[in-house]
Each structure stands twice: as structure tokens, then as C-alpha cells.
Specification:
The chain is mainly alpha-helical. The protein has 22 helices and 5 strands. A 5-stranded parallel beta sheet has the order 2-3-1-4-5, sandwiched between helices.
């Protein structure tokens, strides 16, 4: 087995030649059982298989690699991640404990162990995390450890200590970032100005006629994974996960000479796209993840920025906006350490500004595209799931199935931050959780009100 074969697979994935990549991966998987291969080779192949949602094969690669290198902590960690994606949380905890036995100060492993279940007063890792914090000095690791500590303290009801740990972690993360929320707000304002009522009145485009895509969009941590799992439990719907395909295909069609003048110029340049080609390219780029069911879900939250483009490129696609009480929504984002995403979420004032900008843009989309966007409230979804899902499915054009309410039995993999929670039945403990921190979140509350956000929004109505 040669590394060049893996390099070829990596190139195919980078260039989004997914059909060719699937064929190449199948060849490699078949070949490893006929040849002698190294643990690093198996580790790398497993990584690519995971990116292609071939998690069972990735797990088999990690199992084989660990036979060759049982003392490699990173292999135990990678295996634990795949087990988590597959919903095998107890096995994942055993695997991550093996990792931490070999590398006790691995902050990433500590964080994963924390996330695998709800901690209890009798069974938690709080003192272990504190001991690790006392030994670790680099800020990247300390950030992860503070978030892990905050999560476990919240689980056991130590809210004041939890928020203190969370704040330390968020401040460390924000200090390492170069980010200006004003830049994102400028882009949102440019989108609103560009995709105005006049635009939709004067730009008549047929787009690409596919009815397959179901876009679930909005802010992160507002229940999108729950909605996705419910819908994907329907026999006619498959989830393709959080795809960045739409934005990538949009950028591939943008005239780079027109877009060279900065953010506003880039947004302006998208007005002149061949929308039918954009829709066609998007659908093609999702293959072979999609195509074996009549409908598929793309649940990348930030697609809320592209609602106007989606409406033009895919006029028959379903667009679902899921939202949540603003304070719960913002707190849920603030307490999550994201990987290279959502840089606005680590400082309360910036979080409030971004949230207000998102809400303004969604109000704009509702205004210029009436009856095009399905609105789903998280609170309504967990309080009255069947009554909430029914109209969504009717809009798609399919009947309700009882399996949608048995989503916790769905065996398909989940790679989101909510991968553990979606294996559970509906629970309501996340509603109004922010009230445990009313004093600490007062600056967020003040900033949201100042930005015009209605804090009394009850998304059950």
C-alpha cells in the first residue's frame, strides 16, 4: 500500500470529486485486507472515511491500527470520536479512558469524556479536571479544560462556579482571535441591501428544479440537530449533515474580478450568477451522499446568509428556519467551544450584536420571500412535536410517519456537537436554562434589548 493512493484520495476530497473519491476509498478499504499496512496509514485512511460518513469502515481501521500500536493515545481518541458519532457512548467512554490513561493531560480527550454523558454528583470528573488545570500551562489546552469544567459543574448544579469557569475559557479563546463583529454585520447589511424586494421583483430565474434539498438553518445550538433527526427518521428523507457545498459552489461561480473590491462587492457580484447552474452544481456536489431518497437535509446553520440565493437557485427546495428564545439561544452558543466557527460567540456584547444582525436578516428574508420559509420554534418542537412536524412535512409534500417521533432509535451517525443528546428521547431541561445565570448574563440581556431584540419571544407561538 502506498501513501500516494491516500494522497490521491485526499485530492479528490479537496476538489469535491465525491463520486471518484467514493470509488477510490472502496478500492483502498478492500486492499488493506489483502496487504500489510501500518498503523499511521490506517489512521489516515480512517480520517478520510470519516469525512465521507463511512464511519463503520473508519472504526474497523482504528480497531486494526490499535492492534499494531496499542499504546498510541491518539488512536484511542480517534476511535472514541467515531464511536460517539455512531451513538455508542459507553464504548466511546471506555476508549477515551484508554486515551487518558496514556495521555492524562490531553485536554481534547478530557473535553470529549465530559461530553459523552450528563455528569452526576456521584460520578463526575470535576476534581480530575481541576488537577489537570493545575498542571497544564498552554492556553489552548486550558481553554478546553475550562469549558469541560464548566459543563460538568453545570451538570451537578454548581451554577456560579460553572459560569466562572466558562468565562475564563471564553476569555482565553477570544484573546487568541482576530475578529471584528462589525465585519459580519457589514456583510449582513450588504446582503439585505442587495437582495431587496426590487431584486426579487426584477430578477426572474427558473433556477434548478430539484425538490430534494431540505435546508435547516438559523443559529447554532437552537435545536437544529433535533429537528434534523426527527425529519431524517422519515422513510423518504436522509440527512447529509452540515454541508458547506452551497457556499463553495456559489464562490466557484462568482466573477473574481467583480468581487475584488471587498465584502460588499462580493455580495453584489452574486446578483449576476447563473442561478440555475448554481442549483445544478450544488445538487451534483452532494452526490453520492444524497440521491438514494427523494429528499435530503442540509443543516448548516450559516446557510441563513444565503436564503435569497437558495430561493433563486433551488426554487423547489424546502427552507426551514429553526429558532429559539433569544436568551436560551445565546447562552447555548456562549457555553459551547466551537472548532474554527462562530467567532462571535465568546464575548457577550459581540454575541448580542451578531444575534441582532441575524434576527434582522431573517426578518428581511421573511419580508421579501413571504411563504417561502417554514418557521419552527424549538420550544414548540419539544412541547408538541407531532403538531409541529405535521405542517412541515405537509409543506414538503409527504405524510407524517410515527418514526419521526422515535428519532432516538435512529441508528445513523451524527457528527454535530449534539451527537450524544440526539440519542435521547425529547427532554425539556434546556428550556430557560439561562435563568440559572440571570445575574451573570445581565450584560447580554442589556445588549440584546439595546439592539432591538424581543426577549419575550416565545417560539411556541
Amino acid at each position: 500500500m502506498t501513501v500516494s493512493a491516500l494522497d490521491r484520495l485526499e485530492h479528490l476530497l479537496r476538489s469535491q470529486q465525491m463520486i471518484a473519491a467514493e470509488a477510490e476509498a472502496t478500492t483502498l478499504v478492500q486492499a488493506i485486507f489483502r496487504a500489510t499496512v501500518s498503523a499511521p496509514y490506517l489512521d489516515r485512511l480512517a480520517f478520510y472515511l470519516g469525512r465521507m460518513h463511512r464511519h463503520e469502515e473508519a472504526l474497523a481501521c482504528y480497531d486494526r491500527a490499535l492492534v499494531l500500536m496499542p499504546q498510541d493515545a491518539s488512536l484511542h481518541y480517534n476511535r472514541a470520536m467515531v464511536l460517539r458519532f455512531l451513538g455508542r457512548s459507553q464504548e466511546a467512554e471506555t476508549a477515551i479512558n484508554s486515551c487518558l490513561h496514556l495521555a492524562p493531560d490531553d485536554a481534547e480527550a478530557v473535553a470529549l469524556r465530559t461530553d459523552l454523558r450528563t455528569q452526576t454528583a456521584e460520578l463526575n470528573h470535576i476534581e480530575s479536571i481541576r488537577a489537570t488545570l493545575a498542571r497544564v500551562t498552554d492556553d489552548v489546552s486550558r481553554t478546553k479544560l475550562h469549558y469541560a469544567l464548566a459543563k460538568e459543574l453545570e451538570d451537578v448544579g454548581e451554577y456560579e462556579q460553572s459560569f466562572a469557569a466558562l468565562t475564563r475559557g471564553a476569555n482565553l479563546r477570544r484573546a487568541r482571535m482576530q475578529y471584528q463583529v462589525a465585519n459580519d454585520l457589514e456583510v449582513m447589511a450588504a446582503i439585505e441591501a442587495t437582495y431587496s424586494k426590487d431584486f426579487f421583483r426584477t430578477h426572474q430565474t427558473k433556477g434548478f428544479p430539484s425538490k430534494e434539498p431540505i435546508f435547516i438553518l438559523g443559529m447554532p445550538r437552537v435545536g437544529s440537530t433535533l429537528l434534523e433527526r426527527m425529519l431524517a427518521s422519515h422513510s423518504l428523507i436522509k440527512s447529509a449533515g452540515e454541508l458547506d457545498n452551497f457556499a463553495q459552489n456559489m464562490m466557484a461561480l462568482v466573477d473574481k474580478t467583480q468581487a475584488s473590491g471587498g465584502r460588499r462587492a462580493l455580495v453584489q457580484a452574486t446578483r449576476d450568477l447563473d442561478f440555475s447552474q448554481l442549483g445544478k452544481n450544488y445538487i451534483h456536489s452532494t452526490r453520492p451522499l444524497t440521491g438514494d431518497t427523494p429528499y435530503f437535509i442540509d443543516k448548516l446553520p450559516l446557510n441563513f446568509l444565503y436564503v435569497g440565493l437558495i430561493a433563486c437557485a433551488l426554487p423547489n427546495a424546502t427552507i426551514i428556519h429553526i429558532h429559539r428564545n433569544p436568551m436560551d439561544s445565546c447562552y447555548a452558543m456562549y457555553k459551547r467551544l466551537f472548532h474554527n466557527a462562530y467567532p462571535f460567540s465568546y464575548q457577550l456584547e459581540e454575541l448580542a450584536q451578531y444575534y441582532a444582525g441575524y434576527q434582522r436578516l431573517m426578518s428581511h428574508w421573511q419580508s421579501v420571500l413571504p411563504d417561502r420559509i417554514i418557521s419552527v420554534g424549538y420550544e414548540a418542537l419539544i412541547s408538541n412535536p407531532e403538531q409541529t412536524l405535521g405542517p412541515v412535512l405537509a409543506t414538503i409534500g409527504i405524510d407524517f410517519e410515527p418514526a419521526c417521533l422515535a428519532f432516538d432509535k435512529n441508528k445513523s451517525a451524527s457528527t454535530t456537537a449534539s451527537a450524544t443528546q440526539v440519542r435521547q428521547k425529547i427532554y425539556r431541561s434546556s428550556m430557560q436554562k439561562w435563568r440559572h445565570y440571570e445575574q451573570q448574563l445581565e450584560p447580554l440581556k442589556v445588549a440584546l434589548v439595546a439592539a432591538g431584540v424581543n426577549l419575550d419571544l416565545d417560539s411556541r407561538h
